Amino acid sequence: MTKSLPENLSAACGSGAASRAGRSRKRLRSVWQTRDPGTTPAASVWRVIEIPLASVVPYANPYADVEVTVTFSGPNGESIDRPAFWDGGNAWKARFAPTVVGLWRWQSVCSDAGNAGLHGQRGELHSVPYAGVNPVYRHGFLRVSDNHRHFVHADGTSFFWLGDTHWQMPDTEQLDACNHPGHAGAPCPHGGQFQHLVADRKARGFTVYQTYPASTSPHWWTTPYSAIDPTRFRNVFDVQMDHLAGQGSVIAVGCGHFNDSTHIPVADLCRFARYLVARYGAHPVVWITCQEMNAPAELGGREANRLDVWKAVAREIARVDGYSHPHSAHQWVLDCATRPLGGEPWHDWFALQGGHRGSGLTAQACYAGYYNYRPTRPLIETEAMYELVDCGGVNSVDDARHSAWKAMLCGSAGYTYGAGGIWALKWDAADPRWKEYNHAIEAWHAGMALPGAAQMTVLKEFFTALPWTELVPRFGDGAWAEWTDSERCVLATVGNRLYLAYCYGETSVGVLRGLDPTAVYSAQWVDPRTGRVTVIAKSFGAPDGRWAVPAKPEGDWVLRVEVGT
């Protein structure tokens, strides 16, 4: 059981009242900076502009002793509050991404009203249309679709989530070094290992980078956990986040690992979350709160997690996020019997963790529980069967592929892949970090080249060529199909116009039902490894509304039956 917390937990974390008491590098920035208060800077919509402020009052600990909020007022009555953050010395910054074209005015409010450098500062900026090809800057930040089943950009453009997992990216991934054997002895053409990996994932069509900083790492602190060190934020984390945004990626960001809640006092962990929102909340992000937020309170007889602490952190993120980015909590291995997450007002979507080899593939009934949860919200399978990761056994490429296709046809609004050596970075064969999980892979560059990543591209291209947002999972409903192996034949349809079944068992014997008896259908098998199509029938009718599914080729295949093609 989770231990009870003091009654003043929420006050310690969400009241909004603060206590009163590098090295040079070419920046891969998408941030616009303005430093001359006498000018009206211009910034394109959805891109970060940085407003510098300078404290005129010295504080013993600026990070904890004072809070600053900047309110941005738009041309059509918009109002967006952005927390500012301390960046060393007397420097404070507020980051903002305009959401519409036109003149924006801003004004700062400081919890120390006597600090004229932080309180009552005013300015203007002019937002202009974006003219490039970056999908986030063209279409805007993500929001939940009107039917609450998937994600769309601000302008309503559908967004297909194809994620790649990079836990603790700002702690481990390298900007200035790269040991990829393809350019041994020569500079990395991408700049560093991080940029190399981003380029690979972008080329494969990945749209989401899923990560969090290790909040207990000494990288971030001068005095754990009460005094921040902005250095690594500025030199590493900022550069990574700016680069990802500039490449068109959405970043799924958390504030740490679940057991950090037993090490960091709740007020300090909430303050850290506010700092992350201040630095990165104007980037194209969605929030996952932390990794495995609802993990058990005890593991191995020792305290492991304090769920109430993480709920307080989530409330603080929601309180200070002026953009109301989609917000979830990366879950512990799926628990279909008890759902301690979902009823909270900040919780917009389910970030599921199906688990790994030892967990087995998630059952359709479990996905159905989340799909049918009310109020309706998107579900994303965000951690399952990561390829060549050892967790209860080493996951194969087949495990990764089975998990992805099954999740998609069980209502997942996309999928997050993970690869050994990348999900938790392994620099080289001698790297001891996460060795019990990563022993089956040589290094990150070997993980980057695993075949599952290419198969995720096949999955994305298959679904985005179809009306995938209209698919409804049927979860073994006999009105739509009957299978001899109903768990391993996973069906979703668009009415009775399109039937998609993923069959990964030994057989696929079954009958489709509910077909339009007046329509002409086509049928084909699609290889989920390559996208190769094998035609079953170019045209056929179903006068009784039924069609017998022929035996599939060996292995796992996707059955596609549709009207009029």
Notes on the protein architecture:
The chain is α/β, with parallel strands linked by helices and 565 residues long. It has 3 domains: 31-131, Sandwich (Immunoglobulin-like), CATH 2.60.40.10; 157-466, TIM Barrel (Alpha-Beta Barrel); 474-563, Sandwich (Immunoglobulin-like). 21% of the residues lie in helices and 27% in strands. The chain contains 13 helices and 33 strands. The strands form 9 sheets. The chain has a 6-stranded antiparallel sheet with strand order 25-27-28-33-30-31. The protein has a 5-stranded mixed sheet with strand order 2-9-8-4-5. β11 and β12 form a beta hairpin. α10 packs parallel to α13 (451-464). The protein is globular and about 80 Å long. The termini are far apart. The model is unreliable at 1-12 and 14-38 (pLDDT under 50).
